[in-house]
Specification:
about 120 residues; alpha+beta; 2 domains; 5 helices; binds zinc ion
Amino acid sequence: MMHCEQCNADIEQGEEREHLGKVLCEDCYMDVLSPVRTCDPWAVHSAKSFEAHTGGAARVTPIQAAILEMLEETGGLEPATLLERLKGKLTQAQLEREFATLRHMERARGEKRGDKVFLRPW
Ligand SMILES: [Zn+2]
């Protein structure tokens, strides 16, 4: 199994994309190719306008709120550490899905620190 060097997501065999020598998942590849994040403009737009109406955190699910809280508390965690702290509430695949949602909402993102990828608040 390959991993995206940007967000650490699992990449199915043959699904990997390469950009400037980095192996990326489809999502991150779209991101680097379109810096203004045109991959899903409607999702980002509607998340933002919804937030404007509700005043913020209302849109995140309880588990997403828990993830954000831990990331904000620590300033960033490796996915494995975050999974441990969630005490089995999520599988790795579920965490990746929640994190992808948070990333699209611009609430959290991946960051490379040395040779490790950390999840951190946006
Ligand atoms: Zn990725």
